[in-house]
Design goal:
By secondary structure, the chain is mostly helical. The chain contains 12 helices and 4 strands. 67% of the residues lie in helices and 3% in strands.
Length: 311
């Protein structure tokens, strides 16, 4: 759970850390500059210098340290053959196209590698690097918004090629979802760049006073149309996520079926678990154990009884 929380908080927290170094020095009457995310801080203020030093330390701990440590843990597990179950010949054991993890690795580090192929155990580390680039590093390197969009588009295009060539996930539908989400993000960035370029041309036409340029700018695709296309690209991405959740809701059931098959030595499929969830399966089948609602209710009742005053 701690690792899952770290991965979820990694992009936003890294962005906060790197935002400390972004100073806006575009003021004519002041060469010192102000913190871009909070203009109440001057970049030559002693308090800002203190926070800047603190952020330098945190860069090594959080944005850089966490991916390095997690990648080292994954490499250690994989190289010492403590990540996946292996047969007598040393090959990874696969059940229903899912590589079987070892119990300790799955319980402690499962959020780092479960759901990906055995040869792509490193993909979560790469994904953290991708998030860091798109949310923090590009904004730190390039101060102009259009330059950020161009470099982000190139990086997303590179990531699109990596996803298409590697196919890191255990399910083909998840690979397709990752590809379409990268495509949605790429379209959103391209449309955003076109929006900014169109707005810039229109402002230049107004500043020049050239009626022909103003008419041409209004006749071409205006900013409203580009905004509609950006919204369409975002809607396309969320639509793909919704479609995946509706058409392939059983990926978690497949992992659970694999676990029960190993534990009880009896063939369990995702359909057995699905039937057990609705109480349509014999209690002798191991899949019935996945139906834990009654167990949760008993635990809750016991806790309530323990808190009741004793007479």
């Amino acid at each position: 759970m701690c690792i899952a929380v770290l991965i979820a908080a990694y992009p936003s927290t890294s962005k906060k850390v790197f935002a400390t170094f972004l100073c806006d020095d575009g003021f004519v009457s002041d060469d010192a500059g102000y913190l871009a995310v909070d203009y109440t801080f001057r970049c030559d203020d002693p308090e800002y210098e203190t926070w800047k030093s603190y952020s330098m330390v945190m860069v090594g701990i959080f944005p850089i340290g966490i991916p390095v440590v997690l990648t080292a843990l994954l490499l250690w597990l994989y190289c010492n053959q403590k990540m996946y179950r292996r047969d007598s010949e040393g090959n990874v054991v696969v059940h229903d196209e899912v590589p079987l993890p070892q119990d300790f690795a799955a319980q402690v580090f499962g959020s780092l590698f479960l759901g990906v192929d055995a040869n792509c155990f490193w993909f979560e580390s790469y994904d953290m690097f991708r998030k860091l680039m798109l949310t923090s590093v590009l904004g730190l390197i390039y101060h102009d918004l259009n330059s950020q969009i161009v470099m982000a588009s190139l990086f997303v295009l590179f990531n699109l090629c990596v996803t298409a060539l590697v196919n890191p996930y255990t399910h083909a539908s998840t690979d397709r979802l990752s590809f379409t989400l990268c495509l949605s993000l790429l379209m959103m960035l391209i449309f955003g760049l076109a929006h900014n370029f169109t707005e810039l041309l229109y402002k230049e036409a107004i500043a020049s006073g050239d009626v022909i340029k103003m008419v041409s700018a209004q006749r071409d695709i205006n900013t409203t149309h580009w905004q509609s296309l950006i919204f369409a690209a975002v809607t396309f991405g969320y639509g793909c996520i919704g479609f995946e959740m509706l058409t392939h809701p059983y990926h978690v059931l497949e992992h659970r079926a694999t676990y029960l098959t190993i534990k009880y030595g009896q063939k369990v499929t995702k359909y057995h678990i699905w039937k057990a969830l609705f109480g349509c399966l014999d209690k002798k089948n191991p899949a019935y154990r996945v139906s834990r609602l009654h167990w949760w209710m008993n635990q809750l009742n016991q806790r309530v009884i323990q808190k009741l005053p004793r007479h």
